[in-house]
Amino acid sequence: MARPSRLSGAALGVLFLAVPAAGASLPPARSVLVLYGFDPFAPAVVAFDTALHTTLLAEGPPEVTIHNEVLDPEVVGDPLLQPKLRAWYVVRYGAHPPELVVAVGEMALQFALEGRAELWPEAPVVYSGVDEKVVDRLQPPPDVTGVLRRPGVGETLELALRLLPDTRRVAFFAGTAPVDRAVEVGTRAELERVAGALELIDLAGLPLRAMEDRVARLPPETIVFGVTLFRDGTGRSIRGTEAVHALASRADAPLFTTHAHLVGLGVLGGWVTDYAQVGEQTGRLAARVLGRSPGAALPPREVAPIHPAVDARQLARWHVPESRLPPGTEILFPDTSLWGRHRRTIVSVLAVLLLEASLIAFLLVERRRRRAAEAESRASQERIAHINRLGTIAELSGSLAHELSGPLGAVVNNARAARRLLLQDSPDLKEVRTSLGDIESAADRAGQVIGKLRSVLRKDEFRPGRLDLGRLIQDAVRLVRSEALRRRVTVQVAAGENVPPVLGDEVMLLQVLLNLLLNALDAVAEQPAGRRSVAIATAARSGAVEVSVGDSGKGIPATALEGVFEPFFTTKPHGLGMGLAICRSIAETHGGRIVAENRPGGGAVVRLTLPAAPGQEAAA
Amino acid sequence: MIPSDAKVFVIDDDQAFAASLARLLASAGVSVETFGSAREFLARAVAEGPACAVVDLRMPEVGGLELQDELGRSARKLPVIFVSGAGEISESVKAMRKGAIDFLTKPLDEAHLFEAIERGLASDRREREERARRADARQRLARLTRRETQVCHLVAQGLLNKQVAAELGLSEPTVKAHRQQVMAKLQVDSVAALVRLVDLAKD
Predict the structure, then answer these.
(1) Is there a domain that residue A596 lies in?
(2) DSSP one-letter code for A238
(3) Residue range A554-564: average pLDDT?
(4) Could you give the domains of chain B?
(5) Which chain B residues contact residue A421 at CB under 8 A?
């Protein structure tokens, strides 16, 4: 079976031979030969090649032609086949040897250097993707330059440990292809240097399926790392991104590697080589070599750049905060939604808004509660004041009945008298008129009493007006008059001179006066009949009016003087203790104050001070 | 019917009421006099014929009940009708126990008022008549000599002439003579009448 195959191969060779011959008639072109030591369809190689071509065509001489040759390691490594390959290259390029050879990878460089005397003795060599150590070992002549590969293994491992500080294990994978083996040596050295303290889970050389199974069952705090996997433990060539896809989809741990184009396929990241960039760099170097003046030295060798790159989605998956990324890290596949791009801003703004909203809501609720409490307090205060007024009225009911029955009795008497007079033969009309006049005034008097009573009973709001306190005191004294008579208490009224009016609520102040008078009546109750007296007086004070209600009682105990205006303070067996508290509340509502003290001659006096109504000083 | 010589005193510190009551009574032909306070009334009131007082229960200084006490202590026991603004039960009971004619509340019921006044005046008339009889009896008793007075009182106590004689150390005929003199001076024709007269004079 092998022989016919060889024959057909030779026939093919003849056919190929014919093509350059046809091309030989074309005008001689400056050609560049690119030798690849890798699978030409590997994504890295494709990216490299595209960038190399583009750059070389753009920056190199205009008439440049680029030839690509892919070296099969099995051919190059075969002592029988390699000479045939060289022979073929002689045939292929003998007539128009390349002006420059670009060798990509260690194997290509080695092949280019070993065969150059025979194949392209004049052509300088530009290598790329070759480790510095390899170059140093090969000791290339001066007309060889290139772009050194920088593995980035140590950097990647350091990055991995920086991003995942809890890492305790490294699962290491590597392939079995000669390239894989070559890379593995350097990688292991770096692993030992950087992550020597970590437990190594060695997956190198295993079949891909076995690797997949292993990475699917990794213990926690493990990272997966590897550089190349061109061939697995079964000897099968691994194409393209198959290995990464397979491992990333099964791995239960973050994956790190050094190839830029793999970030995005499930790899978290690493210090990566961007092969398009390297291709461009190599192309530029090659262009400079081509464009150099005759006899000039080649530009010095360069080092391919590497940079840290991560997949944002993987960062999120493994809960790696972006704050751990070293500066300048390329973040691939960032969340491009508004949320993703401005998450931090949005979160902070939302937090501030939420905080503000909560604060506002809290303040609104507080304000509502405070208003409700205030309203309730006001309402209950009004209710208490109202109850106090009702109590006052109840206490005064006898007195009030007396106050009303007097004028009503007068009305009735006068009316009957008038009727009798009119029934007489010669009525005394003058007397009848007087009767009617008296009826009117008595009815007015009753009406006034009722009006006052109604105003006291009415639950009303604070309605200030100009008030003559002297008149209000007369009203109050008249309301308690009968009660005072019943209790055999004399009530003396002393009006001060030039007492200005006050601005106040008539009903409220009447209530205060009634409370004070009734308290005073209570205070003297235990005194002997002849020594029960209450005195109410007004006096002008600077800008204010003082009403004092004194009594001839026993006075207020010194310990109680402070508390008499507090709610529920009472000395009466059935008192609520609200009377004086309401008095103080009303006094304060009027911008005034109320104090209680003992008189030197015995008994207590309560002084209510109210500001004078404005605009009265001049008149007073 | 209220006699024309009768007089009603109205004592009330509520002058409007007092005036109206006076006018009402006057319109009914009753002679009325008003006073603004108890003191004023006690100082100035004079009544020739039967009279009664309509008194406000509550007044400054001297109240209605105190006025009633005052009148009760005086010789002139004027009947009192109380009027009050409110029906104070405890005070009304007190007043009635002390002999008040009635206790009325303002506004006054007219019929009730006149009826009470009539009763008051009748009571006063009886009181006046009794007082007049007592004065007459005392006047007659005053005409007796000391011995006659002694005999009179013993006879009034129901003693026989013999017992009176023994009591006074007199002879029975002497006692008999004194006794006839007493009956003549006192203008009584029976021992029973003499006893009534002496009792009347005692009060």
Answers:
(1) yes
(2) P
(3) 81
(4) 7-133 (3.40.50.2300), 143-202 (1.10.10.10)
(5) 27
- A463 to chain B, any CB pair closer than 8 A? The answer is no
Q: What is the CATH number of the domain that holds A501?
A: 3.30.565.10
Contact B48, B24 (CB under 8 A): no
Domain count, chain A: 2
pLDDT digits 0-9 by tens, A282-305: 999 999 998 888 888 889 999 999
Preferred mutation among A405, A422, A430, A532 to probe B, highest tally of B CBs within 10 A? A405
- Which of B 35-64 lie inside 8 A of A, CB atoms? 58-60, 63
Give the separation between CA A499 and CA A509, rounded to whole angstroms.
16
| Helix-then-strand count for chain B, H and E | 9, 5
* pLDDT computed for residue A606 by the predictor: 92
| 3-state SS, residue A596 | strand
Tell me the residue ranges of DSSP E strands in chain B: 7-11, 31-35, 51-56, 80-84, 102-105
Widest Cα–Cα separation across chain A: 175
B14: chain A residues, CB-CB within 8 Å: 406, 410
Residues A138 and A145 sit within 8 Å (Cβ to Cβ)? no
Chain A residues inside the 8 Å CB shell of B112? none
Rounded to an integer, what distance in angstroms lies between the CA atom of residue A286 and that of residue A269? 30
Interface test with A, best of B11, B15, B57, B58 (most A CBs within 10 A): B58
B117–chain A nearest CA distance, Å: 15
Q: What is the ipTM of this complex?
A: 0.76
Whole-angstrom distance, CA of residue A240 vs CA of residue A246: 11
Residue type, A207: P
| CA dist., res. A457 & res. A473, Å (int) | 18
β-pair type (A64-70, A30-36): parallel
> To the nearest whole angstrom, how far is the Cα of B14 from the nearest Cα of chain A?
7
From chain A, pick out residues whose CB is under 8 angstroms from the CB of B63: 485, 488
Residue B84: partners with Cβ closer than 8 Å, 6 or more residues away: A402, A405, B56, B57, B58, B64, B91, B92, B103, B104, B105, B106
* Same structural domain, A181 and A330: yes
Instruction: Domain of residue A170: give its range.
Output: 153-274+303-341
Task: Using alpha carbons, select from A492, A528, A394, A605 the residue that is nearest to residue B60.
Answer: A492
**Cβ pair A409:B110 closer than 8 A:** no
pLDDT band at A171 (very low <50, low <70, confident <90, very high): very high
Residue A64 CA, distance from chain mean position: 61
Taking CA atoms, what residue in B is nearest to A420? B27
Q: Is residue A266 domain-resident?
A: yes
Sort A577 into a burial class: Cβ within 10 Å, 0-12 / 13-18 / 19+.
middle
DSSP 8-state symbol, A597: E
Q: Is residue A259 part of a domain?
A: yes
Calpha distance B22→B28 (Å, rounded):
10
Is residue A411 situated within a structural domain?
A: no
Question: According to the model, what pLDDT value does residue A19 have?
Answer: 43
What's the rounded Cα separation, in Å, for the pair A433 and A298? 146
The answer to whether the beta carbons of residues A594 and A609 sit under 8 Å apart is yes
The CATH number of whichever domain residue A166 belongs to comes to: 3.40.50.2300
Instruction: Say if B65 is an interface residue toward chain A (CB within 8 Å).
Output: no
Q: How many residues does chain B have?
A: 203
Residue A523: burial class (beta carbons within 10 Å; 0-12, 13-18, 19+): buried
Tell me the average pLDDT across A312-340: 84
For A463, the 3-state DSSP assignment is coil
User: How large is the average pLDDT for residues B170-184?
Assistant: 89
User: Where does a domain end: A323, A341, A359?
Assistant: A341
Is residue A186 within 8 Å of A131, Cβ to Cβ?
yes
* Contact by Cβ (8 Å): A73, A178: yes
pLDDT digits (tens, 9 = 90+) for A342-379: 777 878 888 888 888 888 888 888 888 888 887 777 67
